[in-house]
Specification:
Layout: H1 2-11, H2 21-24, E1 28-32, E2 44-47, E3 53-70, E4 95-103, E5 112-117, E6 122-131, E7 152-159, E8 166-173, E9 177-188, E10 192-197, H3 215-227, E11 231-233
Parallel strand pairs: 1-10
Antiparallel strand pairs: 1-5, 2-3, 3-4, 3-6, 3-7, 6-9, 7-8, 10-11
């Protein structure tokens, strides 16, 4: 499926050859940029705003959908074409049903394709994405830990400020979150590519009291932080 999508994006094929953009819309490829910071011995390490020194040793996030959001007051031509990025989930011209599990410990690398929108030409200002539980058909399910029915899982070790003792932590939740990745207003009237990127660890544990919170509270806190870190670029 991923290979077919890449071929589709590369060729720039529009549904219904010979039809106008008013009828078939345009193609807007959405790609996810992996973190630029290299791993340290297979871990992601950083210090939170609360003074915790953190070693993240395992982490997964379920992204279930992405929606292209028109600018307020923008006019768009309507059409009926529906193209899905994956067999999983429901798609529409401005919505991708992703069903994707992302590794929070992914190494640096080239951006990967999440799918292709087919929106009407118009002015767009953001991408809204749904973080919800992964089902059995999700792409990228981990083999090292059960993740079906979970939205996020983070595990590792922390050291509190002024303490010599390192302690384990775990965060996991079935809660949902909706993120909105802002971008400079873009007039989409031709085939384009949008790049989804995030802080990738810099703000994940802000305000999360690892020493006193339970697994569910840690999971919810990290989930909300991640939902707020993504941004979109239109190269």
């Amino acid at each position: 499926m991923a290979r077919a999508l890449s071929t589709l994006a590369a060729l720039g094929l529009l549904a219904g050859c010979g039809s106008s953009q008013d009828e078939a819309g345009i193609e807007v490829a959405l790609r996810l940029r992996p973190p630029a910071t290299p791993l340290v011995e297979g871990e992601r390490r950083f210090t939170s705003d609360l003074g915790y020194t953190i070693r993240l040793t395992r982490g997964y996030l379920s992204i279930q959908s992405a929606d292209l959001v028109a600018c307020a007051g923008a006019r768009r031509r309507s059409f009926s074409l529906i193209r899905e990025a994956h067999a999983h989930g429901t798609g529409s011209p401005t919505r991708l049903g992703l069903g994707s599990v992302e590794r929070l410990l992914a190494p640096p690398g080239e951006p990967r394709s999440l799918g292709v929108f087919s929106p009407p030409p118009g002015r767009y200002c953001a991408i809204s994405f749904g973080l919800r539980v992964a089902d059995e058909d999700a792409e990228g399910l981990p083999a090292d830990v059960p993740f079906v029915g979970q939205t996020i899982l983070v595990e590792g070790f922390y050291t509190a400020a002024g303490s010599p003792e390192e302690r384990p932590f775990r965060g996991v939740t079935t809660a949902s979150a909706t993120g909105k990745a802002a971008m400079d207003a873009v007039d989409l009237g031709e085939r384009r590519a949008l790049l989804l990127t995030g802080a990738w660890g810099e703000a994940w544990f802000q305000g999360v009291e690892l020493a006193s919170l339970g697994e569910e509270q840690i999971g919810r806190g990290v989930l909300q932080n991640i939902a707020s870190t993504f941004r979109v670029e239109a190269p």
